[in-house]
Amino acid sequence: MTTLTTLSLLFIGLPVALMAAMHLLRRRRAVCRRIEAAFRGFLLLCACLAIFTTLGIVFSVLFEALRFFEFVPVWEFLFGLEWSPQTAIRDDQVGSSGAFGALPLFAGTFLITVIAMAVAVPFGLLAAVYLSEYAGRRLRAVAKPLLEILAGIPTVVYGFFAALTVGPLVRDAANVVGLHASAESALAAGLVMGIMILPFVSSLSDDVINAVPQSLRDGSLGLGATRSETIRRVVLPAATPGIVGSVLLAVSRAIGETMIVVMAAGLAANLTANPLQSVTTVTVQIVTLLVGDQVFDSPKTLAAFALGLVLFAVTLILNMVALYVARRYREQYE
Amino acid sequence: MSRADTVSSMSNVHSGGRESPANATAAAPAPAANTARANPAPPAEFPDSTESTVVYRLRAGIRARYRRERRFRRLGAASLAVGGLFLLWLLGTSALQSVGAFSQTYLAVDVALDAAEFGGDAPYSREAIAAAPYQRLLKSALRAAFPAVTARRDKRRLYRLISDGAPYDLRDRVLAAPQLIGGTHRFWLLANAEVDRLIKGSIDRHAPESNRRLSDQAIAWVDRLQAEGRVERRFNRTFFTAGDSRNAEQAGILGAVMGSLFTLVATMLLAVPVGIAAAVYLQEFAPRNRFIDLVEVNINNLAAVPSITFGLLGLALLINFFGMPRSLPLVGGMVLALMTLPTIIISSRAALAAVPPRIRQAALALGASKVQAVVHHILPLALPGMLTGAIIGLAQALGETAPLLAIGMVAFIVDVPGGPTDPATALPVQIYLWADSPERAFVERTAAAIVVLLGALAVVNGLIAVLRNKVEKRW
Asked: How would you label B90-127 residue by residue, b for 16+ Cβ within 10 Å and e otherwise?
């Protein structure tokens, strides 16, 4: 309670106090200038909080991950094939150390991400093309907010839906065809995640497609191309860098998505490419390892931070590349 | 468009009333288009032999191109429809599943409030009333209602028809009306969740007994009660006024709602002032240099970092390093504040950028300092837009689950929290917890909690829309 009061006093009270002081002392120029400098200093501090947050994430995750690597070698963690983190009830218990080979986790994350992108990219892109090139004003006015609703639904709702509706549906459908599917299949989680990411892809691509200069379209149409030919041969190639950027951002989001997979994908670390089987992901394991009261020096808790480090590094690289590509693209047409 | 029309009207002459592509909308796929695909331009349509083969080929090519055009267009509309249909499916399923949770079954039990159990004669002291053996009273009341039940195991099953919480409910009611003591009165008490499911028709009576949580015997009892008019479905007030519980019939969302509320208050108190200050600095004062570039890249990156990472930060820094307790809305609020900060900064900057430069120029020309120009003129004009940004951040924080799991807001907490420093869960976390529960009776409650969460988000988003319309100013 006191922390909250102090912090909010600092962040709300300080600027207000500075503004008030500036007003009261407005006739004394020299004092006023000092207060203004202090005010700017406060603003700068707030702006730097973003940097502190990033540094905080990097150091906290890195620090705990390094402690984890004292228990388990990096090599074994990154390329080990067996993942079964166990809690030791007693110190002298056999097999208390568990196995921390995270490769099945990476494979599972990859599988679900691929399924999600297989849904989100084609549908999202086509929807964006339709909205920006074909749809009339009225359809746009209805469809865009609808997609925004889809994007605004909390992921835990998608998770519930994936676990209770789509999962059993996939299992039953597979049974009809004569295949065996787990109720917690990678396919169900991937499909729902794909729908979750669809509005993300479509709204980013929509912006990118709208940024393609009209003169390119006019040129193509003027040469006798149909609209779809113009889109496929002129607009989309011109928009490719931006679309690649938005797809990369979507991939980063799929990798980091937690609740859908926690609720709809399994816990068993299977190394498989079969989408009907249950797989587990990096985020699922982070949550599983952390839920409940854990001591901070067991490899089990620390493993979550090692996984977090991998997750952060991969998504950071994807985001950087995506932002770089998008920026380069924007400059191209400005 | 006009060109397309001429071409299509040209081909209309030959292919006989085919719909022009401009009219062939995806919503109403023209049946004529299908026949055109089935018979790809039979030469019979060109009895006129003066038509050269070159022109014929060109026409066929154009027709094929228009077919592709229509197909592409339909594909786009279908993709859009996929999103819309999925949304309908998702919302429809949740709403349908949630319906049951808003009503609850009550059973009428005639309880003999024997004065001897309350310490003899009136007036009864509060302590005596509170300490009376309500469980025993209820059990004997149920035995009296079903005198045929004598076996010990059957009796236990009988007692299980009403909720575990019924004795406490009875105590509260007797405390509120002590004059009832001494007589036999009919009390409507909460039924067990399985009985409730039976009344709602969610239990298949014809399934083998071993597959049900309710025995044939219990079903017969409930049927008898129902025949006597002693079963009623009422509005489920418990769901909105109680905290979490292991028993589905006693579980409510108030605890989670309050937890979410305190978390969001903490989030907003921290994130909004800092976000606005950072946006003002970056938009109005920041020099163009490497460091500021770094800060900006950083903010854009943080906006795309997986939310669970913020949970790891909170766990390592706030809980492990600073030693804050787990499960507090305050700690959750801090973590969510860091998470929503980039969103708030980015949209606040957009609001500042929308204020035309002439406002600042005018202020500066009249002798205001740079800080004065910003604080007195630009900030008030941009504030409504910034508010929208803050509410967008609020909506994001309201639906977020993963970081709260990492900092331990998943504990099973029965009490409704009274402040940001009481252990609590949040609404999305409660959904996750209930969805995880093996008891079928929790499914409808999970769906109902989802409906409440989505309702809250709809209100927040409506607020954003209203604000946008009010605020959007043409300069």
From this structure: bbebbeebbebbebbbbbebebebeeebbeeeeebeee
Starting at the earlier edge strand, list the strands of the sheet with B103-112. Answer: B184-190, B103-112, B231-235
Do B313 and A257 count as a contact with CB atoms less than 8 A apart? no
Nearest to B421 by CA among B361, B357, B331: B331
Residue A32 confidence (pLDDT): 80
Predicted confidence at residue B411, as pLDDT, reads 83
CB of B245 within 8 A of CB of B252?
yes
Q: How many CB pairs under 8 A join A and B?
A: 288
Tokens 């406490």, residue located? B168
Q: Which domains does chain B possess?
A: 104-234 (no CATH), 254-471 (1.10.3720.10)
B423 to chain A, any CB pair closer than 8 A? The answer is: no
Residue A83, SS3? strand
pLDDT at A93 over 70: no
Judged by CB atoms closer than 8 Å, whether chains meet at B300 and A319 is answered as yes
Q: What is the pLDDT of residue B418?
A: 87
Across the interface, do A8 and B77 touch by the CB < 8 Å criterion? no
How far is the C-alpha of B301 from the C-alpha of A316, rounded, in Å? 7
Residue B226 CB-density burial (10 A; 0-12 exposed, 13-18 middle, 19+ buried) = middle
pTM of the model: 0.86
Within 8 A of B274 by CB-CB distance, chain A residues are 11, 46, 49
Number of neighbours of residue A210 by Cβ within 10 angstroms: 13
Closest chain B residue to A282 measured between Cα atoms?
A: B308
Out of A100-114, A261-275, A302-316, B61-75, pick the least confident.
A261-275
